[in-house]
Structures are given as structure tokens and as C-alpha cells.
Amino acid sequence: MKTRYRNVVAALAFTLSGAAFAAPITIATDATFPPFESIDANGKLVGYDVELMQAICEEAKLDCNIIAAAWEGMIPGLIARKYDALISQLTVTEARKKTVAFSDVYQIPSFRFVARKDAGLTLTPEGLKGKVIAVQTGTPMDAYITKNYTGSTIKRYSSGSEPYLELRAGRADVHLSYEAQIIHSFTSRDEGKDFELVGPTLTGKDAPEFGEGVAIAVRKANTELVGKINEGLAAVRANGRQAALDAKYFGAE
């Protein structure tokens, strides 16, 4: 009788464990940040992070539903169980580690300033004193500028695309963002032909605000989901699917 009871309990525990992933996993992303995540002309979510997450879910056998969400509400929404995970070029920082768990790092981004070609700016705190710097609010760029450029006017925007409108309109002198995003969204397009990347390439090695790399965020208590995501990420690295996405979006070999 005891053996039969133990078997029933074990079977029930296995079933309940598997049930955590029986329903779709809701994954939020900020769809204003191409080439990583955006909405195409047909209303479809597209981009590097979107395709990477789809591949991870396939390899880990997770039923995933990726949705667009406002950047500022993503981490609060994750904590409030509105979402199960976030993928949106989220940098791993000590501050964020206090509130969420992260998967393994899947990319190391670089950050650059962009300004008008004839601006002649000196990209130091003293050189940008009195100038207007545009950043997306709540990002590593915002944290870095806020800490270091205290003599500048900082304009913060809720989406990743708004700062480019401000540059073109002359309402901002310079913008700091992910290098790949600046090139894809602005300088490689007609509307950005009068602008260029300026200043040094910055990474987490240059300032802690830029973090350790980007990863997928999950609630701290959901260690099983973190494990499944890492399992899928390891698979897409091993089978070449991530390398193919790197080549597709960034021209990497």
C-alpha cells in the first residue's frame, strides 16, 4: 500500500511539474527597437530577439506566445505575473538582478552616440555641457547619461524610435543607443543620411550601467522556466540557429 501511495505521489508530482509549461508562455518585448524587435507593415512582430526566442521555444519544447508591450511596464508586468518572460535586449545589471532572474547571456551589445555630421561635438561631460541628449527612459543609456552628463539637458522617451525624430527636428543634439539599432533604424536610411556615429564604442567593460550582456528575464521564483530557456538557448547555439540569425541581421559570419 505504501509503495502504491508513493508511486501515485511521484506520478502526481511529475504531472504538476510538467503542467507548468502545458499552457502558453507569455513573453513580452518592446516592439519599438529594430532590428531586435518591431512590428512590420502587416502587424507582425519581427526582429532578431523575436526569431531567437521562437527558436529557443522550439528547441526547449515550450509553447510560447510573444507579444508587444510598453518598455516601461515590462519588468513591473513580469513581477505582477502579467508576463512569464521578457526578451527585449535587456542588459544584465546588478540593479535588475535584485528584482528578476536572467537566462544565460545571449549577446554582448555595443553602444554609440549619434549626432549630425557637422555638429563637431566633443563627447565628454564637459563637451556636452548645455547640450540636449536624447535617450530611451529606463535603459542602460539613460542610467549612463544620468550619472555622467549632469551638465546636459536629458530628454527621455518611452520608445526606442522617438529620439531619432528629435534629432532630425533639432530638438536634441545627440542620442545614445545600441550601435546596431542606430545603424539599422537611422543612419542606414534616407532620413538619417545627415547623421553619423560619433565617439568611442562603449560596452559593459567601460561602465557598469551597460551591464554584462543581454539575456531573457524571468521571475526570480521561476527557476524551472529559466532552466528550460537556457536549455533552448544552448541548443540554438550548438545547432547554428543563432549564428544564422547573427548573419541575417548583422552580417556576422
Automatic annotation (TrEMBL):
Localization annotation: Cell envelope
Signal peptide stretch: 1-22
Keyword terms, alphabetized: Signal
Solute-binding protein family 3/N-terminal domain sequence ranges: 24-253
Main location: other
Domain of life from the UniProt record: Bacteria
Family statement drawn from the similarity comment of this UniProt entry: Belongs to the bacterial solute-binding protein 3 family.
UniProt xrefs under PANTHER family: ARGININE-BINDING EXTRACELLULAR PROTEIN ARTP, MEMBRANE-BOUND LYTIC MUREIN TRANSGLYCOSYLASE F
Protein name: ABC transporter substrate-binding protein
Organism for this UniProt entry: Pseudomonas matsuisoli
